[in-house]
Amino acid sequence: MSKVFTATKELANGVAMPQLGLGVYKMTNPQQTFEAITYAIETGYRAIDTATIYANEKETGEAVRHARVPRQELFITSKVWNTDQGYDETLRAFEASLKRLGFDYLDLYLTHWPVPEKYTETYKAIERLYDEKLIRAIGVSNHHRHHLEKILAKANVAPMVNQIELHPRLTQESLREFCRANGIAVTSWSPIARGQLLADPTLLEIGGKYGKTPAQVIIRWHLQNDLIVIPKSVTPERIKENSEVADFELSLHDMEAINALNRNERTGTDPDSL
Known about the structure:
Layout (H helix, E strand, L loop, with lengths): L7 E3 L5 E3 L3 E2 L6 H14 L3 E3 L7 H10 L8 E6 L6 H15 L4 E6 L7 H13 L3 E7 L3 H10 L6 E5 L7 H9 L3 E5 L11 H10 L3 H11 L3 E2 L6 H8 L8 H8 L15
Parallel strand pairs: 3-4, 4-5, 5-6, 6-7, 7-8, 8-9, 9-10
Antiparallel strand pairs: 1-2
Helix pairs in contact: 1-2, 1-9, 2-3, 3-4, 7-8
């Protein structure tokens, strides 16, 4: 049995999105970024999550072209940054992202943050890109329920993904339930709480039972909660470790123990304070 997790989650339009991907936030060294993505694809990752503001779309595209895996077997996500939001601005930003990536389409394109007075127009532009078949799936990032409700009231195509900060100290159960009820898949960013959970006694104890690290336990918790998860690392050993979560399953008791770690604590910005 392979340890590498390769399952997918079916989005609302039937597109299969890998449930485990590599996040490339804060990968700023071009060569290191290229090598990390290349290694991840060689290891078995099939999803890469980038964004305009990460300033590494060019390296992402280069690594994808270098990989010995057909482009259509990979799932690439990018996002429109806050200063590029608005209808026309988003269309231009998307065109610039495609040019940097060197692609003729994206698998998923997201509004990065709900910029007040702009995020509904930004989403309309993303809908147009979807209608024109330039993106295979459509979504948002860092949207609370009230942001989603405003979009859903006007949208012709509902968001298929909402990427949010989510980890055992910020379980976001109410927002997850709203997304579930509306057919919106949830992707967890900062899934390991920026490393703050790696010394947690509960996670160390659970990991010891399965012969797994706390990071692997947390990633498995995300997956068993039907979440898409995008841990980030530039270290080959950590990239490999994060993917090797297919060979064990957390018990209901252990899942509940991890749920109980919730403190509603963020490591990043609250979208309402943008």
